[in-house]
Design brief:
The structure holds 2 protein chains of 2 kinds. By secondary structure, chain A is mainly α. Chain A contains 2 helices and no strands. Chain A is rod-shaped, with a radius of gyration of 20 Å. Chain B has one domain. Classes of the chains: A mainly alpha, B mainly alpha.
Chain lengths: 55, 205
């Protein structure tokens, strides 16, 4: 079940010419999710700071 | 990871099919979040639960992000598979409409000064817009589309090989967990923002 589909790292990156498509999707998904988490974390921090100042 | 590295290469599509492990969860959750928004809208309009209105505003940007992921991953997948990144077929067009709807809801809510009025209008628009969800789902059956028909049967009737189906289910569950976390954080932002005058929020923060 968990046997690697690729023999080497290079093969996993290249994916018989399809690596560019697969990895660009992985990059988009990772970028979107990481940015969202960072954005909300910063927003909560700012709101907390604003509330602290108003107290 | 399971889908990306440990599943066999597809006989027809080659390795590009691995995009399925990101495309399908994003598309599935983008529509599920819209349904959640519609349920929250009804809850807000009928029972006046303020938290439901906050939830709608919290979900919309996450839904837009997921629809963007579904559209962009689908387009990238389309290049090696269909030979084109875009076709105005029913599934793609109705998903694009969903993306535009999400963006419209976000900009509409932020353009109002009166938050209560904005919540009410947003709820009505979400309910009206929910007609697009069955259209997206059934578009591949109702019209002749470039997009393949649905493969959402499980068990013995499934038309996906188990070696691909189980990683796909795992990916959907993983995505679901991440999105639930994002919705909780986003809701927290909305609650602090909208209830900042209340003493309990000050105590909580």
């Amino acid at each position: 079940m968990f046997n690697s589909a690729f023999k080497s790292v290079e093969e996993a990156i290249y994916m018989n010419g399809h690596g560019i498509y697969v990895w660009s999707v992985v990059a988009i998904v990772t970028f979107c999710l990481v940015c969202s988490f960072i954005y909300y974390k910063i927003k909560i921090k700012r709101l907390k700071k604003k509330l602290d100042e108003s107290n | 990871m399971w889908g990306l590295f440990f599943t066999l290469e597809d006989k027809v599509q080659g390795n590009s099919y691995r995009i399925i492990f990101l495309h399908v969860p994003a598309a599935f959750l983008s529509q599920s979040l819209y349904i959640a928004m519609a349920v929250a809208s009804v809850t807000y309009l009928v029972w006046r639960v303020k938290l439901a209105a906050y939830l709608i505003v919290a979900i919309a940007p996450i839904g837009a992000m997921l629809t963007f992921i579904a559209l962009s991953s689908g387009s990238i997948w389309g290049i090696p598979t269909w030979g084109t990144w875009w076709q105005w077929d029913a599934r793609m067009t109705s998903t694009l409409i969903l993306f535009i709807m999400y963006l419209g809801l976000i900009s509409l809510h932020s353009s109002f000064n009166n938050q209560e009025k904005a919540d009410k209008l947003l709820s009505w628009l979400v309910i009206v817009g929910s007609v697009n969800i069955p259209i997206i789902k059934k578009s591949v059956e109702w019209w002749s589309t470039l997009h393949q028909t649905s493969s959402d049967k499980f068990g013995e009737n499934s038309n996906i090989d188990p070696s691909m189906l189980y990683p796909l289910i795992g990916s959907i569950i993983g995505f679901f967990g991440l999105i639930v976390c994002l919705v909780i954080i986003s809701s927290k932002v909305q609650i602090i923002k909208r209830e900042s005058a209340k003493s309990w929020v000050k105590d909580y923060v």
